[in-house]
Amino acid sequence: MPMSLVPMKLILDEATKPATALEAFNVNNMEQLQAICAAAAETNSPVIIQVSRNAAQVCPTRRLLAAMVSYMAEKKYPQIPMSLHLDHGPDLETIAECVKLGFTSVMIDGLA
Q: Of the listed 13, 87, 91, 109, which one is catalytic?
């Protein structure tokens, strides 16, 4: 059964297990995403895929990254729990759009 992106809490719960590390990586392109997902699959580890503040400020970029991560989670690596996180969101508008795009975790800096 294909797995879609999972809520961040499910991945963070893994970090409470003894001798467990949790990885979070900012991605900007497909090549980075492929390498991160392949490593997560090889180690059978959950992974947090992050979109940085700068990448998130470019609307087509955040849409493309969300689509690529969703594809990887659902089609290519359904056995690996993945969360898509907006890292240092700049404003509520960006946060709202990222949630609509399927991000399973968001953070806002709240800076003016």
A: 87
